[in-house]
Inverse folding.
């Protein structure tokens, strides 16, 4: 039996992004002992990369904003597949969660009267995103990290969890390895919070880092929890496309919020060509009105560039497919044009979008204050994930909680920009609170040593193979990414997805023969090999759910079913592991929205 | 296709050596791309850290041709590719493996800094009012991505190894962010002098030169902090005034 070290906490939080840190702070404030595990160093989780801002109806910039408008915007953006309870709590609690960050030392950009400034973003009716230039995520994670380090939370950095441990129905701990030395670690816990983020690495073109291999979704799935809405993968409309090495890196929606426009190679603002019915009332029908909106004119409606991400991404794909794209297969995003409108435009752009300015200057030799950027869609976010209770964030497995990107529900079929950072805060806090409560009400469980031994043995198998009887992990990962990009991407078709499912079977076989050289010390090849299992599991869940949803809605677009189907708008798709180990797909009818909330949705139409 | 050769330090705490890898290079590539390509095709177990690939997370710090850089923001076409590009781990921290060092000391040093302590809220709804011009200065410091390149070049840590007595430029930036925060009412001058060892800094400005975020570490953070320490400890009159007006200079 391989050796392992044992650690014990009341609550174990897996993940140290915004959701994990917020959960850990809350649990520790409730008086239980808390441990946090994360794959990278503290402060490097995805949250650090978030740019545009955090959505909360503070009404600092437009006093007409309130939780009801935010709720209705979120539901409309999610095409009403959202868990309405989560959308309600999120809209109501986000303002307090943001103000709390200020009390912990965060410094947001200010309004003229000294309050937190808010900016426009796609799908939000009023300027709603509290921000710090275009590095909001850094401000948020650093604030939580620095606040958290003084609360006696134990942090296990660079440590990857490979399996959740169960005692009967209940989750009682986790098992993993430290990346530095490759030694196994057992974490006993009375409650576990998953805050592991997304799945972007399942695709070739992505804004996501190596960490985003769907670990949390896969861990939960194998522990018997249900996953929901996995077909809804958000392709952000604006990723970098040139040079090739930066393909996929995000260009914040904040560029469009500040007045940036999308153009095809003919110089046409093509977003005016196709404005969906649901948004006709709220969208400008001429450039002048759009610009006035970006300048804070409350009478003006928002420009079509700020329609929801799913729609903007598809319009871009349409332009490129029709041969109206840029030289490198994207379209143009231009912010430099605002010099026609305001004095000192270059300084203004550098102040509002400093990291975009540097990103393009340093990586693409483009000065965005002078010339347009080339952009195209990039895999960005998954709306789906672990199915949780809207109030407590507990999954269908007792003792297992999930918050942040790894959880499903808040965003429905499409997430609005800025609603993720607020999601992390609102539901991180809730998950921490209810996990602590669960830990107080339940004793420590029994660790099943056999389960742990099996996981350890499985993890070490790749070292027993070499090139002659196995294959390198990177080749398999790249093959998976190519396939998902081509067959289960922005535009989907039944036959292609069925091919993808067959392809996944083959890749699983190859994955079973993965070989890594070297030893267990800081070996990225080994880490990649172990993450493969998770990528395969979430890819299968995405493909199966996408086959099952025979309509187009939100981020899920089917060429063979290009329209919305009212009947399909009444259920979520849920996958879980069957008793025979195969993936089961079922439809879960939406729960009835209370009359008051229905009224809110009606009033805001 | 064009190729380039990379001389990469391979090994662990017990020792190591440079190993040459030749790989294809294409337009726009950065050093981290080359490392990834080598990792995927020639050396699966080559250790390096990275996350964002866009200069936002501060994970990929290393020494490129002897200069401390973020690998993801170092373009190959800015380097002479007619000779091998050398890649080494940072030197001021214990070596783990290949390009990875043990930076955990930084996280311990950070814990020594007294946390943020705000004044009571300005309004009954529990919020504060701050002008943008008052937060600009602190926002510069809060851009820090904790790449620890400044720590890596500071001679107090790199040569003199005074890790127990000196928190290093990164954490002076953090103390400055707290001390100049418009809402903060904590006093950290005692620690700055004692536990944080600000006196060891002799303003060589090496830290400022390498900061990828362009933070003017020495002029804007360290020097004002040094002045604060001097004021507090050697100016009894100033100290008396401060007794009645805490944070008068904020
Ligand atoms: C470039 C970019 C820009 C964005 N901009 C915005 C924005 O402006 N506004 C907005 O609202 N949203 C934005 N988003 C989305 C948002 O940043 C993310 O959805 C959010 O940060 C996810 O936070 P999280 O806490 O759920 O997970 P993360 O911050 O990703 O953290 C996941 C954590 O889990 C750990 N982990 C994962 N697997 C394991 C494992 N097996 N074992 C142990 N630990 C594990 C990781 O190490 C990490 O610490 C952006 C995303 C990107 C990529
Ligand atoms: S200026 Fe001070 S902190 Fe910066 S490198 Fe020189 S001695 Fe170190
Ligand atoms: S101050 Fe600059 S060099 Fe130092 S850690 Fe922060 S970003 Fe890096
Ligand atoms: S990978 Fe994030 S700074 Fe280089």
């Amino acid at each position: 039996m391989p050796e392992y070290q044992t650690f014990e906490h009341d609550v174990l939080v897996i993940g140290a992004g915004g959701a994990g840190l917020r959960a850990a702070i809350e649990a520790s404030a409730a008086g239980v002992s808390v441990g946090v595990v994360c794959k990278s160093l503290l402060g490097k989780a995805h949250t650090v990369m978030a740019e545009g801002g955090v959505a909360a109806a503070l009404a600092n910039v437009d006093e007409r904003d309130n939780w009801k408008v935010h709720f209705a915007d979120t539901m409309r953006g999610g095409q009403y597949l959202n868990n309405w309870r989560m959308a309600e709590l999120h809209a109501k609690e986000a303002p307090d969660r943001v103000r709390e960050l200020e009390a912990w030392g965060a410094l947001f950009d200010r309004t003229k009267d000294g309050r937190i400034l808010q900016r426009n973003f796609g799908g939000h009716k009023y300027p709603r995103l509290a921000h710090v230039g275009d590095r909001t995520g850094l401000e948020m994670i650093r604030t939580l990290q620095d606040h958290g380090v003084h609360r006696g939370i134990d942090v296990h950095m660079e440590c990857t969890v490979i399996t959740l441990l169960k005692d009967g129905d209940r989750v009682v701990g986790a098992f993993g390895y430290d990346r530095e030395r490759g030694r196994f670690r057992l974490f006993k816990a009375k409650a576990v919070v998953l805050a592991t983020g997304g799945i972007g690495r399942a695709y070739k073109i992505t804004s996501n880092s190596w960490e985003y291999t769907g670990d949390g979704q896969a861990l939960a799935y194998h522990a018997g929890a249900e996953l929901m809405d996995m077909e809804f993968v958000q392709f952000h409309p604006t990723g970098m496309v040139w040079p090739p090495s930066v393909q996929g890196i995000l260009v914040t929606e904040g560029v469009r919020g500040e007045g940036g426009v999308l153009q095809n190679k003919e110089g046409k603002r093509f977003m005016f060509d196709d404005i969906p019915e649901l948004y006709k009332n709220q969208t400008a029908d001429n450039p002048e009105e759009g610009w006035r909106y970006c300048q804070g004119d409350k009478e003006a409606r928002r420009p079509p560039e700020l329609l929801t991400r799913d729609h903007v991404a598809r319009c871009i794909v349409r332009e490129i497919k029709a041969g109206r794209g840029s030289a490198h297969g994207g379209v143009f995003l231009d912010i430099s044009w605002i010099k026609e409108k305001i004095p000192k435009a270059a300084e203004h752009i550098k102040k509002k979008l400093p990291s975009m300015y540097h990103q393009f200057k340093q990586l693409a030799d483009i000065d965005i204050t002078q010339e347009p950027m080339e952009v195209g869609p990039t895999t960005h976010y998954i709306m789906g994930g672990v199915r949780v209770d809207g109030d407590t964030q507990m999954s269908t497995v007792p003792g297992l909680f999930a918050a942040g990107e790894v959880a499903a529900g808040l965003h429905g079929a499409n997430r609005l920009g800025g609603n993720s950072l607020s999601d992390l805060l609102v539901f991180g806090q809730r998950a921490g609170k209810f996990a602590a409560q669960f830990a107080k009400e339940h004793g420590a469980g029994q660790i099943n040593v056999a389960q742990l031994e099996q996981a350890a043995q499985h993890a070490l198998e790749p070292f027993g193979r070499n090139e002659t009887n196995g294959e390198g992990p990177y080749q398999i990962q790249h093959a998976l990414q190519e396939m998902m990009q081509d067959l289960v991407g922005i535009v989907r078709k039944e036959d292609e997805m069925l091919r993808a499912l067959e392809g996944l079977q083959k890749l699983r076989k190859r994955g079973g023969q993965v070989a890594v050289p070297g030893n267990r010390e800081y070996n990225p090849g080994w880490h990649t090999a172990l993450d493969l299992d998770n990528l395969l599991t979430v890819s299968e869940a995405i493909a199966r759910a996408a086959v099952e949803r025979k309509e187009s809605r939100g981020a899920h677009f089917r060429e063979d079913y290009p329209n919305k189907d009212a009947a399909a708008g009444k259920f979520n798709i849920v996958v879980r592991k069957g008793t025979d180990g195969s993936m089961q797909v079922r439809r879960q009818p939406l729960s009835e929205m209370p009359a008051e909330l229905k009224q809110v949705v009606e009033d805001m139409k | 296709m064009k190729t380039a050769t990379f001389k990469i330090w391979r090994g662990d705490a017990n020792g190591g050596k440079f190993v040459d890898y030749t790989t294809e290079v294409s337009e726009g590539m950065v050093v981290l791309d080359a490392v990834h390509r080598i990792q995927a095709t020639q050396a699966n177990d080559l250790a390096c850290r990275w996350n964002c690939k866009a200069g936002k997370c501060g994970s990929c710090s290393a020494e490129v041709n002897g200069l401390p850089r973020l690998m993801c923001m170092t373009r190959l076409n800015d380097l002479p590719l007619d000779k091998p590009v050398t890649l080494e781990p940072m030197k001021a921290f214990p070596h783990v493996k290949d390009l990875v060092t043990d930076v955990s000391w930084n996280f311990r040093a950070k814990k020594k800094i007294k946390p943020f302590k705000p004044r009571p809220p300005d309004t009954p709804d529990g919020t504060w009012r701050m002008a943008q011009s008052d937060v600009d200065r602190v926002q510069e410091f809060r851009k820090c991505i904790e790449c620890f390149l400044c720590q890596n070049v500071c001679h107090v840590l790199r040569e003199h190894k005074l890790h127990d007595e000196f928190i290093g430029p990164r954490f002076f930036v953090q103390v400055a962010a707290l001390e100049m925060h418009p809402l903060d009412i904590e006093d950290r001058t005692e620690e700055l002098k004692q536990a944080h060892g600000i006196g060891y800094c002799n303003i060589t400005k090496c830290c400022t030169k390498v900061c990828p975020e362009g933070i003017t570490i020495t002029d804007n953070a360290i020097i004002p902090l040094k002045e604060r320490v001097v004021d507090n400890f050697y100016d009894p009159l100033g100290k008396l005034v401060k007794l009645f007006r805490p944070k008068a200079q904020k």
Summary: The mean pLDDT of chain A is 95. The domain at 5-232+383-441 of chain A is CATH 3.50.50.60 (FAD/NAD(P)-binding domain).
